[in-house]
UniProtKB/TrEMBL annotation, chain A:
<dbReference type="Pfam" id="PF16644">
    <property type="entry name" value="NEXCaM_BD"/>
</dbReference>
<keyword id="KW-0406">Ion transport</keyword>
<dbReference type="GO" id="GO:0005886">
    <property type="term" value="C:plasma membrane"/>
</dbReference>
<feature type="signal peptide">
    <location>
        <begin position="1"/>
        <end position="27"/>
    </location>
</feature>
<keyword id="KW-0732">Signal</keyword>
<keyword id="KW-0813">Transport</keyword>
<feature type="compositionally biased region" description="Basic and acidic residues">
    <location>
        <begin position="725"/>
        <end position="735"/>
    </location>
</feature>
<feature type="compositionally biased region" description="Low complexity">
    <location>
        <begin position="694"/>
        <end position="705"/>
    </location>
</feature>
<feature type="domain" description="Cation/H+ exchanger transmembrane">
    <location>
        <begin position="82"/>
        <end position="473"/>
    </location>
</feature>
<keyword id="KW-0915">Sodium</keyword>
<keyword id="KW-0472">Membrane</keyword>
<feature type="domain" description="Sodium/hydrogen exchanger regulatory region">
    <location>
        <begin position="567"/>
        <end position="670"/>
    </location>
</feature>
<feature type="compositionally biased region" description="Polar residues">
    <location>
        <begin position="737"/>
        <end position="750"/>
    </location>
</feature>
<feature type="transmembrane region" description="Helical">
    <location>
        <begin position="197"/>
        <end position="216"/>
    </location>
</feature>
<dbReference type="InterPro" id="IPR032103">
    <property type="entry name" value="NHE_CaM-bd"/>
</dbReference>
<feature type="transmembrane region" description="Helical">
    <location>
        <begin position="228"/>
        <end position="250"/>
    </location>
</feature>
<feature type="transmembrane region" description="Helical">
    <location>
        <begin position="162"/>
        <end position="185"/>
    </location>
</feature>
């Protein structure tokens, strides 16, 4: 009996190997499948196995029993998921495949192959995809994913266009296709007269659900302009909502014996009730969820659960009232995301993002996979004319050209022809269409034809358009937006521009979304944040970015654990995530990582690191992460080698000044209380682990432990005999050798000197003491003319900073 | 301000023909359409209490601007002669409608017809505008002090950010600029500040032309304007 299970697993592995080796000849098929396929989803044979046992042991206590029936459903589902996931691994064996062929294509292909195998052994596909299963379990993760990862800012900037395309576009699509198809059905030669208008409309609705996941990942890769991206993203999201509403509506109508005009109006009214009602529930649950997370910091292990439960609850309640559940879950995710991510801990935040991605990718994978299987194994009703005309109309009625002509005058950044082409071409049909078609009620006469036509159009668009869109987008050279501008300057100037524009708008009395954004932000600060966020510290996006950069860098320095950083929402796609996860990572204990977070985020590494990494434009940004640490160490070691030199000559010649010399005059000018006090404080904090009031609110929570992780620095090998004399040469060498990868980090990097370290000390020193900069405007200007004399003002700080480093050996035993 | 509004419109109607000619000139200069100019003119009169010129105090007292963290810089930009494209420097005490319009013209959105070169010039003009906002002493360089001030002000409205943080951010940003632009700085070098070229460099990837713009209305929107004048 045991063998049955092992055999099944074996079969699974065989299938996996088979599917991942797509390039192999198809000749293998029969030999493999005869062996095992029968058993992957065997017809349940309850009597056989146990019987044999009872015969053998007769009335005695059975030593070994087996009850397959009991576990059949979850077992089979698990196997299916596993198979699909294996297939996904398989795609990445040869990584170039996934660049040129969208994953959905590959999944469908695998599905087709598995379907072919099952067909040849006359196996029925598992009937897992029922209407309820789809709507209650498969759909929510998919929409939650797109709702949660919706890039909020561009979305609200383009909300008009997005809704225009999603709502009007979908209606236009489904009604246009429906009526045209109905016209086709009137032609006798095709033999389609029995399809009435309602059914045609129903079908048209199904196939107007676009699902451009594949397109989006292409768009992201080629970084097309933001407007185009967000319109496609938003379209796919809200279009699902509209489609499902329409689907339910037409499903209802199609089963009615006759339709009266008043029903049409009722239907339209219902669409609005359903849509707006969904939104209302979404917002409500979103706020409740955000409010709940205010109190979850004691139960961090279940923090992410709240997010999922509330979103799902929103979905279910909306289902309960038969209003748009997609709308509900999407608005719920949109509403709560901002607040939740501030409330929950870093790890929960990561978990939430991961799990959202995970669930949705399971769902989608399964649907695509299943699509492949069903394509082969079910009986089709193939009607050339209907299917060809469907394809034709789907293309014609995509209607972007017309719709953009209408919306363009209302947009400041208008869509040019290339953008329109991109929009039109991104009309891929996908998982949702298929699931909707597959779950059509049985009493629709030509259901099979509809399923066939849907599959045809999905295969056509996914394969043809999905594969060709990347070359095409690159070929026509759509306007692009650089989306990887994570620099402080850019962020500052974005804000500067936003405020300027808002101000100018105020001045000329013409308001747009900047005005509303301003109003909302005010409301948000005054009321919403106070209620919903536990640790209410208003935070500008500049500060947020700054922190994130620091943190990110700090983490990267210590071994690419960058996975854990996701403090601010960004446009994260599955694809991107995948890329990042491809990086090698070391494993650290969770507590270690946390400590590192705390310590490093406190110390502004990123920024100083950037100075190094940007020196060579062609170098990858993570080339020289560990240098910062080394800089500190070098300086400290240097100092320790020359005791007594702190007083005057320590400030090395390699000091680099930015606008202001080393904060000296300010210190001199505002010395007595302030300076010494802060210096002392800092010294203490660094040496005695005294919790020092951090600049950055949230990060300070556990700053008392901040210095602990310094022992981690052991990962970098020590360069014990650093000597002042060859400092220069080494520096030069380091500059020339900047392009070298950091992968061989420790040993090679330890040769690199610390050109920027002095600035660091200056920054800290200055920021701690020069709080009077505003009033001290005059002094500051004076000061600029002064040469930068090395002073004692800097040295105490040096001293303080290095002490912990010198102590390091004492901590070693703790490791 | 409210009671003045009708009078302003009437006065303008009387001198319609004279204005017509003037508007054409302005349209050529600033690139606005006649309707937009007319709209802006109405707004200008509203702000200036039907005077020919507008003063700092008048702009300062616009209530809806009160919450803008960089209000000072914005108002200053209007009186900055550098933004008038006349190769003059310094600032003036009062500005007329033409100057008002020229400053506004920095915010014209690109249309479908603008060519790449035009976009490039627009971008440069916009960048220059931003640069001038930073560079208060007009020496062609944004020093750390100037930069800090702007950052501080940007952050000033967003709650209780400590000054230190603002400073640290400005410093970091400055350092970023320095290292992007002067990669091989000798140890003794002193980075005085951001020049315009460096400024261009750091914002290279940023889509200025599609972000820094305003929809100037072609048609009159009395409702908005009413709401405005009462506020």
């Amino acid at each position: 009996m045991d063998s049955s299970i092992t055999r099944r697993t074996g079969v699974l592995l065989i299938i996996f190997t088979f599917s991942s080796l797509l390039r192999d000849s198809r000749g293998d098929v029969p030999t493999i499948q005869t062996g095992g396929i029968v058993t992957i989803l065997p017809p349940v044979n309850p009597d056989n196995a146990p019987q044999a046992y009872t015969d053998a042991v007769q009335e005695k206590m059975p030593v070994f029993t087996m009850n397959y029936q009991r576990i059949q459903i979850p077992f089979e589902i698990t196997l299916w998921v596993l198979l699909a996931s294996f297939a996904k691994i398989g795609f990445h064996v040869y990584h170039k495949i996934t660049i040129w062929v969208p994953e959905s294509c590959l999944l469908i292909s695998i599905g087709l192959i598995v379907g072919g195998i099952m067909y040849s052994v006359h196996e029925e596909p598992p009937a897992v995809l029922s209407r309820n299963v789809f709507f209650l379990y498969m759909l929510p993760p998919i929409v939650l994913d797109s709702g949660y990862f919706m890039p909020t800012r561009p979305f609200f900037e383009n909300i008009g266009t997005v809704l225009w395309f999603a709502v009007v576009g979908t209606l236009w699509n489904s009604i246009g296709i429906g009526i045209s198809l109905f016209a086709i059905c009137q032609i006798e030669a095709f033999g389609l007269q029995d399809i009435n208008l309602q059914e045609n409309l129903l079908f048209a609705t199904i196939i107007s659900a676009v699902d451009p996941v594949a397109v989006l990942s292409v768009f992201e890769d080629t970084s097309v302009n933001e407007q185009l991206y967000i319109v496609v993203f938003g379209e796919c999201l809200f279009n699902d909502a509209v489609t499902v509403v329409m689907y339910n509506l037409f499903n209802f109508v199609a089963l009615m014996p006759e339709v009266e005009p008043v029903d049409v109006f009722l239907g339209v009214g219902r669409v609005f009730v359903v849509g707006l009602g969904g939104m209302g529930f979404g917002v409500l649950f979103g706020f409740v969820a955000a409010f709940t997370t205010r109190f979850t910091f004691k139960v961090q292990e279940i923090e992410p659960l709240f997010i999922f439960m509330y979103s799902y609850l929103a979905y279910l309640v909306a289902e309960l009232f038969n209003i748009s559940s997609i709308m509900a879950i999407v608005t719920c995710a949109l509403t709560m995301k901002y607040y939740v991510e501030e409330n929950v801990s870093q790890h929960s935040c990561t978990t939430i993002r991961r799990v959202v991605k995970l669930l949705s990718s399971i769902s989608e994978t399964l649907i695509f996979f299943f699509l492949g299987v069903v394509t082969i194994t079910t009986d089709h009703e193939w009607n050339w004319s209907y299917i060809l005309f469907t394809l034709l109309f789907a293309f014609v009625w995509r209607g972007v050209l017309v719709l953009t002509q209408i919306i363009n005058p209302f947009r400041t950044i208008q869509f040019n022809f290339k953008d329109q082409f991109g929009l039109a071409y991104s009309g891929l049909r996908g998982a949702i269409s298929f699931a909707l078609a597959f779950t059509l009620p049985e009493n629709i006469v030509r259901k099979q034809l509809f399923v066939t036509a849907t599959i045809a159009i999905i295969l056509f668009t996914v394969f043809l358009q999905g594969i060709s869109i990347r070359p095409l987008i690159e070929f026509i050279n759509v306007r692009r937006t650089n989306r990887n501008l994570d620099t402080i300057n850019v962020e500052i100037h974005c804000r500067l521009m936003e405020h300027t524009v808002a101000g100018i708008e105020d001045l000329c009395g013409q308001w747009s979304h900047f005005y509303w954004k301003d109003k909302f932000m005010k409301f948000n600060h005054k009321i919403l944040r106070k209620i919903l966020i536990r640790d209410n510290r208003a935070e500008s996006s500049i500060v947020a970015l700054y922190k994130r950069l620091e943190l990110q860098n700090a983490m990267e320095i210590l071994g690419n654990v960058s996975e854990d950083i996701s403090t601010t929402p960004s446009i994260v796609s599955l694809y991107e995530e995948k890329k990042s996860s491809a990086k090698p990572k070391k494993t650290f204990l969770a507590t270690d990582v946390k400590n590192m977070h705390d310590m490093l985020s406190k110390n502004m590494y990123k920024i100083r690191q950037r100075t190094v990494s940007y020196t060579n434009k062609h170098a990858l940004p993570n080339d020289s992460h560990s240098r910062e640490i080394l800089m500190r160490r070098h300086t400290s070691i240097r100092c320790s080698l020359r005791p007594g030199s702190f007083q005057s000559s320590v400030v090395p010649k390699s000091h680099k000044y930015f606008s202001l010399p080393a904060g000296k005059s300010l210190d001199v000018k505002f010395p007595p209380g302030g300076k010494s006090c802060t210096d002392d404080l800092e010294t203490m904090s660094e040496v005695v682990y005294h919790p020092r009031p951090s600049r950055f609110g949230r990060l300070s929570r556990s700053s008392s432990r901040a210095m602990m992780p310094l022992r981690r620095l052991n990962t970098l090998t020590e360069a014990p005999s650093v000597n002042m004399l060859d400092e220069r040469t080494r520096e030069e060498r380091s500059k020339s050798g900047r392009g070298t990868s950091r992968k061989n980090s420790s040993s090679s990097d330890s040769h690199i000197a610390a050109p920027h370290r002095p600035f660091h000390s200056y920054v800290e020193n200055d920021s701690s003491s020069a709080y009077n900069i505003r009033s001290g405007h005059r002094e500051v200007e004076e000061e600029q003319q002064q040469p930068p004399p090395p002073t004692r003002a800097v040295t105490p700080r040096n001293n303080a900073a290095q002490n912990p480093l010198l102590r390091r050996p004492q901590w070693n035993p703790k490791k | 301000m409210r009671p003045d509004a009708p009078r302003g419109t009437a006065a303008m109607g009387a001198s319609q023909t004279r204005n017509e000619h003037k508007y054409h000139d302005l349209a050529d200069k600033s690139g606005f359409s006649l309707e937009q100019i007319e709209n802006l003119y109405k707004r200008f009169q509203q702000l200036s209490d039907n005077e020919e010129t507008i003063s700092r105090e008048q702009l300062d007292s616009i209530p809806s601007l009160a919450n803008n963290p960089i209000k000072k810089q914005i108002v200053e930009a209007f009186f900055d002669k550098r933004n008038q494209h006349h190769n003059e420097v310094g600032s003036c005490g009062e500005i007329g409608f033409e100057q008002f319009l020229m400053v506004m013209s920095h915010f014209r959105p690109p249309s479908l017809k603008t060519t790449e070169e035009e976009k490039e010039t627009m971008r440069k003009v916009k960048l220059r505008f931003l640069f001038n906002m930073h560079d208060t002493d007009n020496d062609g360089i944004i020093t750390l002090v100037e930069y800090r001030k702007v950052v501080e002000e940007l952050l000033s409205k967003s709650g209780n950010i400590e000054q230190e943080a603002a400073k640290a951010i400005a410093d970091a940003a400055m350092l970023e600029v320095a290292s992007t632009n002067v990669p091989h700085m000798a140890p003794d070098d002193f980075y005085e500040g951001i020049t315009f070229e460096h400024f261009e460099q750091i914002l290279k990837g940023l889509e200025m032309e599609s972000r820094m713009h305003i929809r100037f209305l072609d048609v009159d929107t009395p409702t908005l304007r009413c709401g405005k004048s009462t506020s």
